[in-house]
Amino acid sequence: MSNLITIERHILEQQKYFPEAHGELTDLLTDVAFAAKLVRREVVRAGLVDILGFAGSTNVQGEEVKKLDLFANEKIISAIGQHGRFAVMGSEENEGIIIPPKNETGSYALLFDPLDGSSNIDVNVSVGTIFSIYRLKGDDPCKASINDCLQHGYEQVAAGYVIYGSSVVMVYTTGHGVHGFTYDPTIGEFLLSHENIITPKSGKYYSINEGSFAQFNDGTKKYLDYIKEEDPATNRPYSTRYIGSLVADFHRNLLTGGVFVYPPTTKHLSGKLRLMYEANPLAFICEQAGGRATDGRNRILDIQPTSLHQRTPLYIGSEEDVIIAEEFEQGLR
Ligand SMILES: O=P(O)(O)OC[C@H]1O[C@](O)(COP(=O)(O)O)[C@@H](O)[C@@H]1O
Ligand SMILES: [Mg+2]
Ligand SMILES: [Mg+2]
């Protein structure tokens, strides 16, 4: 595998799978990679520029917004919206849909979490950006609406994420495998570093915020007892790993094997994470890599969306590990 394949070149080669797209999907993904470079530029020098701390406002989720959340949001909307390829967008940081400046030519909808892992921004722990792309339902971009955003996850034409960590990595899928690219700042390019990622059928890590133990239901509590029991035959006990940035916890488990669980809690009865720009894109990637993603019962990609910011429980990662966690959630174990 040559390390000299840029993400733009790789995306171009994926075009063979989309003869009807006339290269537009290529341009879209290239726009996303460009926006990621702009966000990365601020993230890597966050302590030196006035981008740490709270912005003094709350978002539609009722969360206090960080300056970097707003910066990333603004950069993605302007860097991508200016090209007129998206007719409509949905962001974690905007209550309603966004109609980009030149949407009249767009044939796609973009949903995104501009900055994932906001609680880790100020303390130099990995954060990320997550995105999901759909083809418009109708032919007239000027009539693009929320309906073009609220499509089943299995309708995604592309999805991906960027991690801003010790290195900056962008991972994406168009439904033809999962591929990772590492940013080389000496040449300003994302270069192929992880081709055709396949996640192990089971792993050795479990990721869950045990600080919320008192809010968990019996199924989740029993699962935690099970995963910590001593039994070498089933690779137990698993080691706990919880960064608190979904994109980073997911990426680790994708490469090494393991399971991430954000269950329903008494505080978040339908889970905390958002279906449209967190669960759906990661579920598409996870399944493409041979993993599994459910809400404890249903396949994430089959969930019928009803609102832009709806939440869902999330059980995602290595297939066998996710199935075990589900069985406890369903009271089958
Ligand atoms: O602190 P908690 O309840 O474990 O929640 C952590 C989760 O919340 C998130 O930070 C939510 O995402 P945002 O940072 O984009 O709002 C996830 O990245 C992470 O997995
Ligand atoms: Mg997030
Ligand atoms: Mg976010």
UniProtKB/TrEMBL annotation:
Fructose-1-6-bisphosphatase class I N-terminal domain: residues covered: 5-195
Stored Pfam families: FBPase, FBPase_C
Location, primary (coarse class): cytoplasm
GO function terms (MF aspect): fructose 1,6-bisphosphate 1-phosphatase activity; magnesium ion binding
Gene Ontology CC entries for this record: cytosol
EC main group: hydrolase
Gene encoding the protein: fbp
Taxonomic lineage: Bacteria, Pseudomonadati, Chlorobiota, Chlorobiia, Chlorobiales
Protein name listed in UniProt: Fructose-1,6-bisphosphatase class 1
